[in-house]
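Good morning,

Attaching, inline, the backbone tokens for the sequence recovery test we're adding to the shared suite. The designed sequence is right after.
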């Protein structure tokens, strides 16, 4: 069939500057991709470039026209296998241009599900009741600001909160926030900010404050560092930056307890699904994560949530005003069953 494709960019201001140990973001640049069939149906996908993973708006602008031409040449949104192979070839390999490929992959899957008239999770045969609630992230800020934010979120119904850490005040932040939200499930993410000795010390502090797990305590460039921390940690350790695609899972499987899978990191819906199943086959739990991105991509993540133990799909919630509607997520509860629209449910307002 004749598919037509377009893409556009949206600069989406964040609700508040979002800081992690690597830096601060105030605007999220999102590519929104559209793939139309000849019957008036349109699939929508999106992604934001992450420089840490080698992508920028320029690199995405360079490759998106070629990726979209590949989709048009396949001409069949139901042949996701061939689409994925062509996207990988055009990008230059399974680790190249993951966010750009993800945006296109999501749009193609959205279109295919719309053509079948079913929400994406039903196309995958998943149980909407199995989706765990999403956490909401509390970015790095002053201790008092992080405490206030955590209290506000808990009051708004979020019972899973993720604290970004990676400053000299980490112990103070954890004890202050824990005291302020005693009933919340807390997990933390250092984004690789700690050295091994500091990380080992922090894991026992985290255990004392009933923190469920720690994400990427040490840098990803040396796998041995993560192993040293995980060996000594009294709480589960999750690999995020240390595990990008399914092929990375075996390398961390004997080291960590949880793997963080992101559609934008894996390079699409099928690669992300493969990473989820690979992790589970190795006995690991999975957290489905995201970037600071719009519902053009977050909505797709919601449909994979039933496959995961943990979900961190707050990207759209961090935006001041996401122009894309997605799956309802009051208090972090992913209401897939209420999302009875075909496809991912994403629609540009
Ligand atoms: Mg992370």
């Amino acid at each position: 069939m004749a598919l037509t494709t377009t893409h556009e960019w949206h600069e989406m201001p964040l609700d508040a500057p979002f800081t992690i140990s690597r830096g601060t973001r105030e605007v999220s640049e999102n590519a929104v991709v559209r793939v139309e069939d000849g019957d008036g149906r349109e699939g929508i996908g999106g992604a934001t470039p992450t420089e840490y993973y080698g992508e920028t708006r320029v690199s995405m602008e360079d490759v998106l026209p070629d990726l979209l031409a590949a989709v048009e040449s396949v001409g069949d949104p139901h042949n996701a296998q061939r689409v994925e192979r062509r996207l990988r070839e055009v990008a230059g390999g399974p680790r190249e241009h993951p966010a750009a490929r993800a945006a296109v992959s999501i749009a193609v899957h959205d279109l295919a599900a719309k053509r079948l008239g079913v929400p994406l999770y039903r196309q995958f045969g998943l149980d909407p009741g199995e989706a765990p609630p999403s956490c909401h992230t509390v970015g790095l800020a002053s201790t008092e600001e992080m405490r206030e934010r955590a209290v506000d979120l808990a009051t708004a119904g979020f019972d899973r909160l993720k604290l970004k850490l990676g400053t000299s005040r980490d112990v103070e932040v954890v004890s202050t926030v824990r005291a302020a939200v005693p009933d919340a499930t807390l997990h933390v993410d250092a984004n690789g900010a700690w050295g091994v000795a500091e990380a080992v010390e922090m894991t026992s502090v985290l255990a004392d404050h009933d923190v469920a797990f720690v994400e990427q305590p040490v840098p990803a460039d040396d796998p041995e560092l993560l192993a040293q921390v995980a060996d000594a940690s009294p709480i589960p350790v999750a690999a995020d930056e240390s595990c990008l695609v399914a092929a990375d899972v075996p390398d961390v499987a004997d080291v960590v307890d949880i793997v963080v899978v992101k559609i934008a990191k894996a390079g699409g819906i099928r690669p992300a699904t493969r990473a989820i199943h690979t992790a589970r086959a190795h006995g690991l739990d999975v957290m489905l994560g995201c970037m600071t991105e719009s519902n053009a991509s977050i909505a797709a993540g919601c449909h994979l949530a039933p496959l995961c133990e943990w979900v961190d799909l707050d990207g759209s919630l961090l935006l001041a005003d996401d122009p894309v509607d997605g799956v309802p997520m009051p208090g972090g509860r992913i209401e897939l069953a209420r999302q009875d629209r075909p496809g991912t449910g994403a629609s540009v307002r």
